[in-house]
Structure formats: structure tokens, C-alpha cells
Amino acid sequence: MTWLYLTLAGVFEVVWATSMKLSNGFGNIWWSVVTFIGMILSFGLLALSLKELPMSLAYPVWTGVGAVGSIVVGVLFFGDKISLLTWLFVALLIIGIIGIKLTSQH
């Protein structure tokens, strides 16, 4: 269950980052509300995962899932352009996240 909490925390990190962009500098109240709800859920789920997982494991996975997810959302929904070399480094992030999970004792 702990890894599910951590994964969902990363997903909600993407939710709040995306909705913050859509809030237009917090000028759109509804997207601003979604941003704060996403933040609360992301931090809350991270806190739950930290009950069982060491911080040195949970925090990098949380930020990695958020980073990769935000890149994918930016490219798919906001037309962000990233180079082939950048995609290589995104792949390395994914490999790193998987490697952290596979080599952990939890």
C-alpha cells in the first residue's frame, strides 16, 4: 500500500503543477482551488508513504514521478517542445526511479 501512496503522491504532484499553469498565475479561481487540493493530496500521500519508507527513497521517487509526469503533460497538452537529447534524460529519470524501487528493501 505504501508504494501506491507514493505513486499517487507523484500523480497529484503532476495534477497541482498542471492546474497551477492553468490557473494563470492564480487568476482563475477554479484552477487555483484544484492546485491547492492537488498539493494537499500530494503532500498528504507523501507523508503517509514516509511512515514506512525512508526519506532517501520516497522523496526522489516522488519528485521523479512528478518531473516525468509534468514533462509528458507539457508535451502532450501544452505543446512544449523538447529535444531528442532531453528525451534521453527523461528516460534516464525513469530508469532511475525503477532502479530505486527494484533495489530498495521495501
TrEMBL record:
Keywords annotated in UniProt: Cell membrane, Membrane, Transmembrane, Transmembrane helix, Transport
InterPro entries: EmrE-like, Small_drug/metabolite_transptr, Small_multidrug_res
Annotated TM spans: 27-50, 57-78, 84-103
Membrane topology: Multi-pass membrane protein
Principal localisation: membrane
Location of the protein in the cell: Cell membrane
SUPFAM superfamilies associated with the record: Multidrug resistance efflux transporter EmrE
Gene3D superfamilies: 1.10.3730.20
Family recorded in the similarity comment: Belongs to the drug/metabolite transporter (DMT) superfamily. Small multidrug resistance (SMR) (TC 2.A.7.1) family.
Protein name: Multidrug transporter EmrE and related cation transporters (EmrE)
Source organism: Fructobacillus fructosus
Lineage: Bacteria, Bacillati, Bacillota, Bacilli, Lactobacillales
